[in-house]
Design goal:
Farnesyl Diphosphate Synthase
């Protein structure tokens, strides 16, 4: 069943617009040219990514009873800038952009420099935060290596680690709130991190299923391709288009969506007793998305089976008319079409 429960009572509809304005005001105040600001706040990039990357700390601040808006706004700016730099670097490494593009490197440099400058206003050089910061950076390096060396991932548990490492930039917001509140909310901190990991396992599963072709071309690890290789012998002998169809017809996508659903339910459990309305809202949205995608898969499979059965019925009728003058030949065709129908039903599962 699709859940219709949302947490709109707690959602600030103006937060997204305000967050964009805050980034622009901050960069304008530093005297950056309009071209640089437009590159950082590229509208297509913002539209193609979840809104919450512009206000990530606001997803978790209630769990730590932290409500200083000025600090949260600055942390949100730092988080967005860092995320923007990471995505640009990903595009370069995945050969989506020309590595000789000076503007891309300039944008990355500015985003990372301003991120560190903002965080330095809240954390002294000897703060434990910077130790955690270093840990998160190396997690992301590990994620990149795992992504490019898929033979290093041999189990779903290792895939979960990859998902957690890929989302390391997001954990920095949680780390910052933990340190800023004097590390008093240790249980909340650990459980929010666990919830964050489960959310991103589900997130990455959905991403892998939808990006099968892109990851195939870029030679990145993809959990749906990994599972399909185990389900279908010699999968590489099939065209890319047929592989994408088999992903659904062989039940791989449905199986993975069920795994994603389990992770979202667990992500809810970790924060059930905490005040984290915006985070719970995002978990709910993900749960609904998984459910809808699963329903779409079932519809696709049923429709595919229907088309195959109709094709066989029409073949039988057409050949029956052609050979109606020869009853023995007609019954032979009838028998062959029955065998064919059994074969299609078996193949389609």
């Amino acid at each position: 069943m699709i859940s219709t429960k949302y947490f709109f009572d707690y959602r600030d509809d103006n937060l997204f617009k305000e967050a964009i304005e805050n980034v622009q005001i901050y960069l304008n105040g530093l005297g950056y040219p309009k071209e640089v600001i437009d590159n950082i706040c590229y509208q297509k990039f913002i539209r193609n990514n979840p809104d919450y990357y512009l206000y990530y700390p606001y997803l978790f601040n209630s769990a730590f009873d932290f409500s200083d808006k000025e600090v949260l706004d600055m942390l949100s700016i730092a988080g967005f800038l860092y995320y923007r730099s990471i995505i640009l670097m990903d595009d370069i490494f995945d050969n989506k952009k020309e590595t000789s593009n000076f503007n891309v490197f300039l944008t990355i440099n500015i985003c990372q420099e301003e991120t560190v400058k903002i965080l330095s206003t809240f954390f002294e050089t000897d703060s434990e935060f910077w130790d955690i910061w270093g840990k998160r950076k190396f997690e992301y390096v590990k994620a990149y290596k795992l992504d490019k060396q898929s033979h290093n991932i041999s189990s779903f548990a290792e895939y979960e680690v990859l998902c957690d490492y890929k989302s390391s930039f997001g954990k920095i917001a949680i780390d910052a709130l933990f340190v800023l509140t004097g590390k008093h909310y240790r249980n909340e901190y650990q459980n929010v991190l666990k919830s964050h990991k489960d959310f991103y396992v589900a997130f990455q599963i959905l991403d892998d299923v939808s990006d099968y072709e892109e990851d195939y071309i870029n030679q990145q690890f993809n959990i749906s391709k990994n599972h399909l290789e185990k389900r279908v012998d010699d999968i590489e002998s099939y065209s890319l288009g047929d592989q994408k169809k088999l992903l659904y017809l062989e039940g791989v996508a449905e199986e993975l969506y069920l795994k994603a659903y389990e992770h979202i339910i667990r992500a809810f459990e970790f924060v059930r007793d905490y005040k984290a309305p915006r985070w719970k809202d995002e978990l709910q949205r993900m749960q609904n998305t998984i459910t809808i995608n699963n329903l779409n898969i079932n519809g696709y499979i049923r429709f595919n089976k229907y088309l195959k059965s109709k094709h066989i019925d029409r073949l039988e009728q057409g050949l029956g008319k052609i050979f109606s003058s020869n009853r023995r030949l007609y019954f032979l065709v009838k028998w062959l079409s029955t065998v064919s129908a059994m074969g299609v039903a078996w193949f389609s599962g």
